[in-house]
From TrEMBL:
Residues 457-565 form the Galactose oxidase-like Early set domain. This is Glyoxal oxidase. InterPro entries: Gal_Oxase/kelch_b-propeller (IPR011043), Gal_Oxidase_central_sf (IPR037293), Glyoxal_oxidase_N (IPR009880), GO-like_E_set (IPR015202), Ig-like_fold (IPR013783), Ig_E-set (IPR014756). CDD domains: E_set_GO_C. Gene3D superfamilies: Galactose oxidase/kelch, beta-propeller, Immunoglobulins.
């Protein structure tokens, strides 16, 4: 390819990027449909299916003759299918097991209109909403593509203790561990309410629940404790201002230093996530916490105007397996409670949703906004790039018009976009336009399209459908077009697995981004084979179960393939030797040819930026 031809190609691709159909989507939120039930909880269960679970309330769907509180959302048609859930799944937690079954755990007693549960009301479905007591509930779903699957919500499978606001995490063998919660709910877990459930248990059960001192010491702010399995096989837990490491195999607790600046756990509800675990960082977990509120233990009694209290701007990180120090990170542009972090395939994080003042929760206090304990919706989404130097990690993403307050959720989708829905800081359904309510029940589903959306997207061949721990590497093929017509881009290509997690209360339980080791063989025509290692031989880096596999070329992700990590069964996973990759090869001729092209590209990019500022040169 000659210099002048590549210039033409480049200008043409600019023209394409500016065509109206695509140029409008990057960095925008688009309304796509209605969710049927408000998305308090949401997860991607199949490549084109998102599952939504709400608390029992007067939703706009009917199931068995009463309002329903779960739907399946079809991403191809943007329509929903009502689904039956027996019990009140109010503030339940969830995760996906190593065999692909999703769990939804806990909830509240049965309620009537207005979200109230007067003494003596039926706990077995004999009320207007037909809901059963969900306090001990354990609900199972095997997602499907043919609209036949239903939640299995069978009291015979229930837990032995009540858990309202429990956190779930999946373990190395694909089973689940369930943390904490309380018996009867409330804004926080006031010690004098005597309803704390400071225990941990497994599912499938391994016997009596185990009491954690940590979940007693962290009262009253220990609901939905923040929990991550670490590559060491220990578990990191954060609640109130405290933090610890749990050796869950021996149930030994190790306290570490308090988290600086703010409470991050619900209802302070910071945005939290794990940075990508990569070959460069030796698959070390670094966890980030952004926002929350600096309310002290004695300030949680909502007798004062919490909605006027600004949320925290503080961001901190910790890498618990290697260094127990808390580090300050680039702060937020403005305080945020209930921000939600999404791991993007290109290695950045997206922060969206939430509010500038107040916290999660609701009530009828005179100072509440309607019933909301938060105000000042944060409509601006941000990218956070852990690869950038300190001081320049945040950049603006997109702006929505829909407040996503308490009880909203979001998750990455298989095509690299992000679905956002929910918001209902109210005891029951509140319709748009209800006087006195700024924050109504939200059914609108939006998709956020990250800035890579409009770029030439790679469509590699031979995308895998499963990964093992160690074992033979695989080959994925890329054409010159996949490499954006630059043969050298094969050396900027990454292979990434993402578990999207179970989204609720601004946590995406189990969300993880793991980059695999790669090498490549470049062909003389500029196409290439990407050699992709299996996962490192350690299931604690990425637990077994369904996930998304992306190939990312120079920051632009492909559509993902839907994969099963591990052997698809619960139990110890087969572990092989770490994959041994071939040496990377690329012909000297390609380097000479495309090396020059790269220099030309740099000039073009400079020109493009200048043109954009002047906004005259590229007005196609
Ligand atoms: C409620 O359901 C009706 C009938 O399906 C539909 O027309 C309407 O748009 C829905 N409203 C909301 C807010 O979802
Ligand atoms: C996964 O394992 C659980 C626990 O044994 C079981 O209830 C569920 O049916 C299994 N799912 C599949 C798809 O086999
Ligand atoms: C707030 O008041 C409304 C209207 O009276 C009632 O339906 C609702 O249950 C109350 N909510 C709470 C959290 O007390
Ligand atoms: C990477 O982490 C593993 C433990 O997960 C450790 O054994 C190994 O020494 C580390 N390698 C480097 C280069 O730090
Ligand atoms: C949010 O908090 C700030 C700081 O306390 C206050 O100035 C502002 O008025 C609050 N906003 C609302 C809508 O209450
Ligand atoms: C990605 O998938 C969508 C369908 O979900 C399809 O329309 C699009 O062409 C795919 N893009 C690539 C680059 O494979
Ligand atoms: C893994 O994928 C390969 C190739 O796509 C397939 O041949 C094999 O049967 C799969 N294994 C499992 C356990 O699904
Ligand atoms: C992968 O590609 C390399 C060379 O490009 C080849 O030697 C190897 O046999 C291929 N492996 C598989 C599993 O196709
Ligand atoms: C890939 O890029 C790196 C650094 O940019 C360079 O050191 C390496 O030699 C390149 N690999 C090949 C095979 O060209
Ligand atoms: Cu809640």
């Amino acid at each position: 390819m000659t210099r002048s031809l590549s210039t033409v190609v480049h200008v043409l691709s600019l023209a394409l990027a500016l065509s109206p159909a695509s140029a409008q989507l990057a960095n925008t939120f688009q309304y796509v449909g209605l969710s049927g039930a408000s998305a308090q909880q949401m997860f991607l269960g199949r490549p084109d299916r998102v599952y939504i679970v709400d608390k029992t309330e007067r939703n706009n769907i009917t199931v068995d003759g009463h309002p329903g509180w779960a739907t399946e959302y079809d991403l191809q048609t943007n329509t929903f299918r009502p689904m039956a859930v027996l019990s009140n799944s109010f503030c339940a937690g969830g995760t996906v097991l190593g065999n692909g079954t999703w769990l939804n755990v806990g909830g509240n007693q049965a309620i009537e209109m207005g979200g109230v549960s007067p003494p003596g009301i039926s706990q077995t479905g004999q009320n207007p909403y037909g809901d059963w007591d969900g306090g001990k509930a354990l609900r199972l779903l095997d997602p499907c593509d043919d609209e036949t699957c239903e939640w299995l919500d069978d009291p015979a499978l229930y837990l032995t203790s009540r858990r309202w606001y429990p956190t779930l995490e999946t373990l190395e063998d694909g089973t689940a561990i369930i943390f904490g919660g309380c018996e009867w709910g409330g804004y926080v877990n006031f010690a004098n309410n005597n309803q704390n459930n400071p225990t941990v248990e497994f599912w499938p059960s391994r016997g009596e629940p185990f009491t954690l001192d940590f979940l007693i010491k962290t009262l009253p702010v220990n609901l939905f404790p923040l929990v991550w399995l670490l590559p060491s096989g220990n578990i990191f837990i954060q609640a109130e201002f405290q933090a610890m490491i749990l050796d869950y195999k021996n149930m030994i607790e190790y306290d570490i230093a308090d988290i600086p600046d703010a409470v991050r756990v619900y209802p302070a509800s910071a945005g939290t996530a794990v940075f990508p675990l990569t070959p460069e960082n030796n698959w070390t977990s670094t966890i980030i916490f952004c926002g929350g509120t600096d309310l002290e233990a004695d300030q949680w009694n909502p007798v004062w105007a919490i909605t006027k209290y600004p949320a925290s701007t503080s961001c901190v990180t910790i890498s618990p397996d290697v260094d127990l120090t808390w580090y300050q990170d680039d702060p937020l542009d403005a305080g945020r409670s209930m921000g939600n972090f999404i791991n993007l395939p290109d290695g950045r994080l997206l922060l969206l949703n939430g509010a500038g003042n107040g916290t999660a929760g609701y009530g009828n206090n005179s100072w509440a906004v309607g019933q909301s304990y938060a105000d000042e919706p944060r409509l601006q989404a941000w990218y956070y790039d852990p690869a950038q130097p300190s001081g320049s990690r945040w950049s603006k993403a997109g702006l929505t018009t829909i407040p996503r307050m308490y009880h909203s959720s979001c998750t990455l989708l298989a095509d690299g976009s992000v679905i956002v829905s929910g918001s209902n800081p109210n005891a029951d359904y509140i319709s748009p336009g209800t006087p006195g309510y700024t924050f109504v029940t939200q059914y609108q589903v939006e998709i956020f399209y990250p800035d890579y959306w409009d770029k030439q997207r790679p469509a590699p061949g031979n995308m895998p459908s499963n990964f093992t721990y160690g074992g033979e590497y695989i080959n994925v093929t890329l054409t010159m077009e996949d490499l954006n017509n630059d043969a050298l881009n094969i050396n900027k290509t990454k292979a990434v697995i993402i578990r999207t997690g179970f989204s609720t209360h601004t946590m995406n339980m189990g969300q993880r981004h793991v980059e695999l080791e790669t090498s490549f063989t470049s062909n003389t025509d500029g196409s290439a084979t990407l050699h992709v290692a299996q996962l490192p031989p350690n299931p604690a880096i990425l637990v077994p179960g369904p996930a998304l596999f992306f190939v990312v070329v120079d920051g632009v992700p492909s559509n993902s393939s839907w994969i099963m990590v591990g052997n698809g069964q619960l139990g110890d996973q087969p572990i092989g030797e770490a994959s041994v990759l071939p040496q990377s090869t690329i012909s000297a001729q390609l380097v000479a040819q495309y090396g020059k092209r790269d220099e030309l590209d740099m000039e073009q990019r400079g020109f493009w930026h200048w043109g954009k500022r002047g906004s005259l040169l590229w007005d196609f």
